[in-house]
Amino acid sequence: MREQNLHKEQGNTRSDSRMSRLSGIYKLRKRFRILIIAFLLVFTTLAAIGVYWVNSLDIEKLVVPILAPTQLIDKNGNPSSEIVSVKIESVSLDQIPLHMRQAIVAVEDKRYYDHTGVDAFGIIRAVFRNVKEGGAAQGGSTITQQLAKNVFLTGEKTFSRKLTEAAYALKIESTYNKDQILEMYLNQIYFGEGQWGIQRAAKRYFGKDTKDLTLAESALLAALPKAPSRYSPLKNKELALERRNLVLSLMRDEDFISNDEYNQAIVEPIHVLKKVPSEQQNHLLGQFASYTDEVIDEAIELYGFTERQLLAGNLLIFTELDPVVQNAMEETYRNDSLFPQSAPDQLVQSGAVILDPSTGGVRGIVGQRGEHVFRGFNHATQLVRQPGSAFKPLMVYAPALEKGYDAQSTLYDGPLDINGYKPENSDHRTLGQVSLRDAVIQSRNIPAVWLLNEIGLQTGKSFVEKLGIPLSEEDNNLSLALGGLFQGLSPLQMAQSYSIFPNLGTEVSAHTITKITTTDGRVLAEAELDRLPLCYRRMLTR
């Protein structure tokens, strides 16, 4: 009897346990169903809101682009320049060669005909590439997103801006077909040198209509929208050639061109017009072309704006410009008697920078003699030359002072032969001995080389590298004492480096921009003076 009762109790226990498990499973299923329903409701609601938002976007500017001017404000709060490009020449798609369209698709958005404005595969691919390469090596924006960004949005690097860009792309794709979108993109994208649209770009660079572009010319133009200033064939011919050949390679990979076409195009040299045709002059208004150009470059390279956003974005750019200083510099450069005699057809060129050493604010820039043109070559910021004796204080005398030398220290000034290197003074005379002060004042070469050898070449190199001046592998000899750099420096780089002397060893960051805002006062970018100055970023990317 006891065994029967025991079996019944055990049976009841198993039954209760089974019921408990079934009850638990039922409750989990119920909760799961509730979660699924809740998720679907939230998803449906958000999707409905998203659809409503996308449908409510106004994309009329795609058809009639409105180019609003951007104003530059000087350090006193007064407008100094107004920059805008007001001329766009549109061409129909049938006037754009097939290889031009294919080149843009190959380099900017190879899945263009497969997505609906936002390419999920492209985004995933970009994320993996960026993680692998340890930075933002590749973006995920489609051609449609780029069109939306350039026409409707600012340069803010925020999630909300990226989301809005995607929404505009979806609206554009639901309104226009792929050929229409590609036509609008090619007619409105910025190709550098103040030129918007493929027709003006073809005329500016090659002096011809779009319909007459060759395969190699099309590939070069397709190379520009990613970074028009960096890949400009007028400023960086080697980079432009490298980028053009990459476009041709991508076109071959996509079977847009044959191996024979690729091999023929890749050996074609780059020939572009150096002088801007009169009808292609851009419409940058106001004064101070060289300073304005540096402001534009700084905003692009340091703060991530596009040239189109700056030149047609209705923005306010607050700068360090001092109009009194700038006008004095330009007046000086108009005085030919202050410069060496020039050939009849070409001025001896020069560039100058004046920088406030207490703040790093660039007060004035003159980029060339003669006619000052916007988006021209800037000898003050873009041209690098051997700094010569101006490099002695940075490479030799400042590190020597740190080592314990002073103005009265005696330096050797006689015949010198260091492992076959035999420097001479400019007057071809030696004094035997000279004080450090007099060596600096008289800019004597032998004492500088002797002193660098005494304190150690590596000491001098370490000092200038701390200033942000990257040296090449070739810069490993005593000629550095006399400014014999392998790459050279620009006037802006020298002004940046010399700021250590009035600041008693503290270097400031050279900059032209204090902040960039919308016309209603919303701050889009603000100077971060601890970031690497633009002049050294250029040096590191050469």
From TrEMBL:
GO cellular component, one term: outer membrane-bounded periplasmic space
Penicillin-binding protein transpeptidase domain ranges (all copies): 351-518
Biological-process GO terms, alphabetical: cell wall organization; peptidoglycan biosynthetic process; proteolysis; regulation of cell shape
Keywords linked to the UniProt accession: Carboxypeptidase, Cell membrane, Cell shape, Cell wall biogenesis/degradation, Glycosyltransferase, Hydrolase, Membrane, Multifunctional enzyme, Peptidoglycan synthesis, Protease, Transferase, Transmembrane, Transmembrane helix
GO MF assignments: penicillin binding; peptidoglycan glycosyltransferase activity; serine-type D-Ala-D-Ala carboxypeptidase activity
SUPFAM superfamilies registered for this protein in UniProt: beta-lactamase/transpeptidase-like, Lysozyme-like
Pfam name, any one: Transpeptidase
Catalytic reactions of this protein: [GlcNAc-(1->4)-Mur2Ac(oyl-L-Ala-gamma-D-Glu-L-Lys-D-Ala-D-Ala)](n)-di-trans,octa-cis-undecaprenyl diphosphate + beta-D-GlcNAc-(1->4)-Mur2Ac(oyl-L-Ala-gamma-D-Glu-L-Lys-D-Ala-D-Ala)-di-trans,octa-cis-undecaprenyl diphosphate = [GlcNAc-(1->4)-Mur2Ac(oyl-L-Ala-gamma-D-Glu-L-Lys-D-Ala-D-Ala)](n+1)-di-trans,octa-cis-undecaprenyl diphosphate + di-trans,octa-cis-undecaprenyl diphosphate + H(+); Preferential cleavage: (Ac)2-L-Lys-D-Ala-|-D-Ala. Also transpeptidation of peptidyl-alanyl moieties that are N-acyl substituents of D-alanine
InterPro entries noted in UniProt: Beta-lactam/transpept-like, Glyco_trans_51, Glycosyltr_51/Transpeptidase, Lysozyme-like_dom_sf, PBP_transglycosylase, PCN-bd_Tpept
Record domain Glycosyl transferase family: where: 85-251
Membrane-spanning intervals of the chain: 34-54
Family as reported in the entry's similarity comment: In the C-terminal section; belongs to the transpeptidase family. In the N-terminal section; belongs to the glycosyltransferase 51 family.
Protein name, entry field: Penicillin-binding protein
